[in-house]
Amino acid sequence: MGDRPVMPRTAPSATSVRAASVDIYAPQWRNFIFVAPFLFFFTTLLLVPLLWGMWLSFHKADTFSSGNFVGLGNYIRLFHDKEFLQSVWNTFYFVLLTVPTLALIGLFLALCLNRRTRTAAVLRTLFFSSSVLSVTIVTLIWRIVFIPNVGLLSTIYGWFGSTAPAFISDPSLAMIGIAIATVWWCIGLPMMLFLSALQQIPQDIYEAAALDNANRWQTLRSITLPSIKRTFILVVIVQIVLQFQLFGQAWLMTRGGPNNLTKPIVLYIYDTAFRRWDLGMGAAASEILFILILIAAMAQYLVTRNKADRT
Amino acid sequence: MKMKKILFAAVSAGVTMLASPSLAGTELTVQRFFGACDADFGTNTDVAKAVGECGIITSLINKFNADNPDVHVNVSTVEWPGYDQLTAQFASGDAPDIVTIHESALSDYQSKGLLMPLDDLLKSVGVTPDAFTDAARNGATKDGKIYGLPIDSWTMLYHINMDLFKQAGLVNADGTPILPKSPEELLAQAEQFKQKTGKPYFVQNLANETALYTRNLYTYLFQQNSDFFADPKHVKLNTPEAKKVVEMYKAIFDKGYTTKDLDYGGAINAFLAGEGGVQLNGTWVVGDNNAQSETKGAALNKGGYAVYPYPQLFAGAHAQYADGHTWAVSQKDRTPEQTAAIGKFLKFFADNDFDWSRTGHLPAYKAIITSAAFRALPHRNTIAAVADLGRPLPSAVKRQFAIQDIVGEEMSAAITGQKDVDAALADMESRVNELLANI
After folding, report:
1. Which of A205, A247, B66, B150 could form a disulfide with B136 if both were Cys (CB 3.0 to 4.6 A apart)?
2. Is B98 in a helix, a strand, or coil?
3. B338 with B425, same domain?
4. What is the ipTM of this complex?
5. What is the rounded distance in angstroms from the CA atom of residue A249 to the CA atom of residue B88?
6. Are B258 and B204 in contact (CB under 8 A)?
7. pLDDT for B332-342, tens place per residue?
8. Residue B115's CATH number
9. Residues 47-76 of A with CB under 8 A from B
10. Is residue B9 assigned to a domain?
């Protein structure tokens, strides 16, 4: 690395050659040391495992040895495996159940609680408080609600002499039960995002609307909702990416049952790689999940880019 | 003078630091399932006072620590069966020294060279395999060597609420329960029970469960002489024998002869609250249930508690599915002191197997199973027969826990009506064979 070029001390004469100015944006090797720590961890903790996972997905590997190269064998097995296809469907079904609900309830709560009263502040804290709980606590709470005979739901139904729906074991209800627990757990973030978006809408627009005699519905439809459209898209995409990674709730509430109807892709990967020791096929399933999340992340990127173009 | 004091203090500190490792003794890491109960037994060293699997094993380890000041055992408790965690620990080179492993899971780890053969170590502390019962020795032996110290043999049992059986008129003149001798009799008695008591005959944990379904299937396949694992790498489950078993349990489910939405804990609570006649559960709850039957006001105290092996419903072999627990030792470099400490721990459990058998499990030692003290324990006269009836899967069958999940899932789907019985059996067979073909 050479010394910095010295700037000429005297004003250049008309005949002298103009000294080259320093380009402060020119690449310099020493800048590398500033990003080296990040690059080190990014490479070792993210890039290497990612590439290693891809490599494993082409091998017949178990937990204690990496076996023979099988090409696309694991992927072919995967797409012939009813359980895997079921888990892909389960994941989409779960995303379908939770994401619109989270977006709509989050928006509804934000609209209701977007005011400067003490009650609204308390309720905002209350609705957000579930988000700080760990998945273990959340599922424990909801198991206590759903558990047959002695659970909260059973007790309430018992007062009216009827039987509570079996949210943990009924094939048609189990995923809905997990979705209910998830919405209760995750509602805080969408609500907060909507609240911050609502608070950024200039107050004078509402005042102008009031002068034009706009009613509440017209104000909501023509001012509020268009103003928070981008936040709405952001909430939906963030939640899609998050809910695709469902694992804890399904594992702790139903273990993926009954008969794999609540087994999401991540649980399938866990089962295959760590319980059946079929690491190669587990890695292949991880790559499929990676592609699915990548598509969602790319969608987020495109939406954000369009937003930047317009403003 | 001051300098002298400082020097003296420094030397004393140095000596203390050097001496502390020998004072602490040899550290061993032990990993086990059987639950956590530190609130009740965390400091208890009087094993005779302990009840149940968790209480007895916690107290036994406390007593070992108290009796052996030169060894300190650090226990980590894992959720049953703990193999996901153990596999990850082995893969990352961080396995515990001693770990509970089922006999049915030993070969998975042994075949990968992860477990230490124990023959020489056990011999050095005076424990020889000829002291084990046949079932325990066969279960712990892989490729001619002992890979786990057997501590019991276990199986599933009919835990019976005698009060409800009396109400149902299902009691013999001598006070013993009337149990079925064929699938038809089972359904008839279950109907009679339901009519007379208004409650289901069975208390089963069917919610998100796999193990119970699978053990039931294996037992009644054995009783029909179905050699479904004749080839340890290829199972035959899409058979008329398996169909008979699944259809029997489906009829029990469809006709309301069983509880339906309970998980494991819920089923135990329901049985203890007197919500059904027969709970299908293992040897491990005999001690707890018996303690309940002696507690005034408890449902089992009303008319008594009885426990029996699964009834013989088919004309084939007198058999039922069984397995056993062992203490296995991970393969790693150790000092002679550490190896000797492990030997001490294993010898302690071999010597105290009687206390462990108070859980309800059958002892792994001939001397204990034939002892008057064991025979005098409650209900052992009715369940001791499982020592001869118990039959595991062939030990060459690998991934038995993963197979259990597949079989249980498909059986559950068939019994609860999510799938046609034939389709479930076909899927069960193909999924297990897919798994075995890719080991």
Report:
1. B150
2. strand
3. no
4. 0.82
5. 21
6. yes
7. 999 999 999 99
8. 3.40.190.10
9. 60, 62-65
10. no
